[in-house]
Amino acid sequence: MMLSKKNTSQKKHSEAGGEEDIIERKNSEKIKKAEMEPAEETEKKEEGIADAKKKTDEYLSGWKRAQADFENYKKDQEKRMIEFRKFANLDIVLQILPVIDNFESSLAHIPEKEKDSAWVQGILHIKKQLEEVLKNSNVMEIETKIGDEFNPVVHEAVQDTKETNIDTKKTNKIKQVLQKGYKIESRIIRPVKVIVS
Q1: Are residues 47 and 81 in the same domain?
Q2: 14 with 69, same domain?
Q3: Contact indicator for 196, 161 with CB cutoff of 8 Å
Q4: How far apart are the first and last CA of the chain?
Q5: Radius of gyration for the chain, computed over Cα atoms and rounded to the nearest angstrom
Q6: What band does 17 get if pLDDT is binned at 50, 70 and 90?
Q7: How much is the pTM?
Q8: How many of the other CB atoms lie within 10 Å of CB of 139?
Q9: Residue 36 and which of 18, 73, 93, 186 are 20 to 30 A apart at CA?
């Protein structure tokens, strides 16, 4: 009987020791888990911060591109407005040019004895005023003289007096100016009409 009491007490003691081991193991697992959780949380936070920084950099980069695009757009608009202002009066200019042509044509037919008369001086004054309007609109006459080389960029050949004979030299020179040409800066608004020999 004594033995069985002794065995029972040992059994109880070993069970108690086993429970202590289990509790101790559980506690160490909890400690390890608690130690690991902050490391995992820190890692997650760092990943979140890295993602947020990456998105912030993307948004900042996008904003800078949008700002640069807008600045370029403003510069393009300013250029377009300058171009628009240059050629805004083009319709009016093109309507004035035939009037000046008519003045020049009529002045070419004035008899010599009438050239100093008041009415001829009045016509010359009106022609000069129209030319000033063109000058103020940056319209320039394309200078062309008889004997100049024919240039298809600024000249329009109305008639070619070259003979079809092969032996004839082709000079490609301007023989006669029929109508003046005009330009605004480098843009030809009306070519010079010429006869080419």
Answers
A1: yes
A2: yes
A3: yes
A4: 149
A5: 49
A6: low
A7: 0.57
A8: 21
A9: 18
